[in-house]
Amino acid sequence: FRDADSLCELAPSEDDETVIIFYTGGTTGRAKGVMLSNINFQCNTDCSIALYRMQEHWKFIVLGPLFHLAAGSRVFSSTALGGHCVILPKFDVLEVFQAIQQYRINSATLVPTMFQMMLDHPEFSNYDLSSLKMLAYGAAPMSVALLRRVIKAFPGVEIFQTFGMTEASPIVTSLDSKYHVLEGPNANKLGSVGRAVSHVEVKIVGEDGNAQNAGETGEIFARGDNIMTGYWRLPRETAAALEGGWYHTGDIGSIDKAGVIRLLGRIKTEINRAGMKILPEEIDALLEGHEEVVEACAFGVPDAISGETVAIAYTLKEGSQLSPADLRTWCQIRIRLDCVPEKWYPVSEIPKTDRGKVNRGVVREYCLEGKNR
């Protein structure tokens, strides 16, 4: 064997040196390699431990793929705390219940669909999940209706919402557990993504490139020591994403006077109906508020008159007899008429990526090709 020195330089890496590449979810385009540095990981780990009030020697369960930063970053937190990580090869509801009970798991990070599957499972109440102290969720928006179910199902457990992305290592904002309540003055923040965490600055920028006032809508920009060094071998995309020293998230939102951020959608998924911009995420959230709807995914389809109109795929609870006409009527008294879906696609399951995210492009293709039948 050759000496190690002849193969590589053995020296400590610098704070700003790229140490790992994680890939983005790729839900609005091809996945990109995100280069992250030592300082990126350090500030995110230091932040998350204090933010989530994690304790030494906690036991964590990792449910997502380790190439995704939401799961991968938890390994760093566990290591810093001298904790224990139970890593499951895939998400299976019964295996999750069994692992939490067997290993006395203290913390888990889930996406909304995982919560939905756990709460809907007939065996949910038959397992001892009392060891749980903290639950975090993110990666995709959670409807307030589902969030209320989660809060009721896990009394005494601290629940946190996290908004972030791979390019931010990943945390940008968080809604603290004190706001995950069903009544009282703190309850009105449910559905928001909370405030920017301590090491991140956030601003809302309008189409004219200027910062928006409180309550106004625009793209969410972020900057801090958590922001990536760039995209692997994509200098043009890196320059565009980090233009002006801020990371351009591609997410649409607003900030109120108290600094609370509401996430409204993605720029690339907007539906343009006769010049009116419609955010499909808002329609998803509305329909998922119906007691018989499990999941919904709105998307744009071509229209000869308005250029584009709204279509939606949805799943119903078992035994529901709701028709598209019933749901259309229900929507018409709750949102602007131009936002009411014109085309309705009942499906048995909403297609998702291996990270549990809904890919609207795939859902659109799935429905338009008649695969929902």
Describe this structure in words.
- By secondary structure, the chain is an alpha/beta fold.
- 24% of the residues lie in helices and 27% in strands.
- The protein contains 9 helices and 19 strands.
- It has a 7-stranded mixed beta sheet, with helices on both faces.
- Helix 5 links the parallel strand 6 (134-137) and strand 7.
- The N and C termini lie far apart (60 Å).
- 38% of the residues are buried.
- The mean pLDDT is 91.
What's the arrangement of secondary structure elements?
Blueprint: E1 18-23, E2 33-37, H1 38-51, E3 59-62, H2 69-80, E4 84-87, H3 93-103, E5 107-110, H4 112-120, E6 134-137, H5 144-153, E7 158-164, E8 171-175, E9 195-196, E10 200-205, E11 218-224, E12 230-231, H6 235-241, E13 247-255, E14 261-266, E15 271-273, E16 276-278, H7 280-288, E17 293-303, E18 307-316, H8 324-332, E19 343-346, H9 360-368
Parallel strand pairs: 3-4, 3-5, 5-6, 6-7, 18-19
Antiparallel strand pairs: 1-2, 2-12, 7-8, 8-9, 10-11, 11-13, 13-14, 15-16, 17-18
Helix pairs in contact: 1-2, 4-5
